[in-house]
Amino acid sequence: MRVWLAALLACWPLAGQVRLDDYDPKIHIAVIKSGRIVVQHGKITARAPEEPVIAERVPRALLDTAAPTPPGATIRQVLANTADGTPGEEVLDNRSFFDALTPIVGHAPLPNALKFATEEHGTLGWFTQEYAGERLLWSYGPSVLLVRVPIKNLTLVVSGDLTAARLQDGNVLRSKIALGLLQDPSILGGPAGADYMVDAALESLYNGNREGSMALVHQALDKFPELESTPDVTLLYLFAQLRLRETEALATAVIREHPSLPTAWFYYGQYLENSKRYREAAACFEKITMHQPPWHHWTVAAAQKELSYLK
């Protein structure tokens, strides 16, 4: 029997577009309204993501001082993900940045994600993006996602295996659960658009159903041809993995928008390598390995490995 999210709310109903049992039973969900838990599906035991917790511990007098990395950025800019204006700035994956802040922030244990989400915190360390004309704030860890909708005083907490969501690319709409909530008319009523189809294609690919993923992408492109020129990093990953001819145009759009994003260069390099355009692929990987100042990001080691094959 399907359980509608709306059925779980007596005093604050949603329109019921989110079916909790559409998701893996190991995924646990909580909805918090004005600091009060109004929905809880499963037990959330995950710890809160590290970045916002660290941000809360940095003395405000030090927020506008120079960051350990990158050069020219302040601690505030890095924690707010605005060091270069690019979502998913690689600095937030750099352990040396947080290690350098340890003398300031201390070693206090991270709080439980649900407890953390019910408390008031600033925006430092949270990603920010627009959806349906409204501002979203969000952060994630290895097994937890927190999404805030400030205009609604609402927070969504999701815990479990979030691998298929590819949140590391800096777009919270790549979480089917977050997207389903945000599309509910009583939350934001965001457009169905292509996001659901893209997320379903990602999930199919993650589950090993390459043909199903390919079919969903082609359906999405037929219905939303603008996807081919949308500067979406996760979409570039998906197209490159499926080796679609549209990858070329999409890579151009993504790199034009995010010229300093190592994942964009890596995904495009993978596509070129699989297309046997080895010299161009090597140039993409060298963009990552030869960047100055050096990037501290998972793509560096991965690009070095690909270059060893190409050379």
Summarize the structure in words.
The chain is built from twelve helices and six strands. The protein is an alpha+beta fold. The protein has two domains: 192 residues; 116 residues, Tetratricopeptide repeat domain (Serine Threonine Protein Phosphatase 5, Tetratricopeptide repeat, Alpha Horseshoe). Strand 3 and strand 4 form a beta hairpin. Helix 6 packs antiparallel against helix 7 and helix 9 runs antiparallel to helix 10. The chain starts with 27 loop residues before the first strand and ends with a helix.
Give the number of DSSP strands: 6
Major sheet = 6 strands, antiparallel
Tally of DSSP helical segments: 12
Instruction: Please indicate the percent range of residues in DSSP E strands (runs of 2 or more).
Output: 5-15%
Radius of gyration, in angstroms, nearest whole number:
20 Å
From the N-terminal CA to the C-terminal CA, the straight-line distance is 56 Å
What is the typical, i.e. mean, pLDDT? 83
Anisotropy-based shape: globular
Low-confidence stretches: 1-18
What is the number of domains? 2
**Helix content bin:** 25-40%
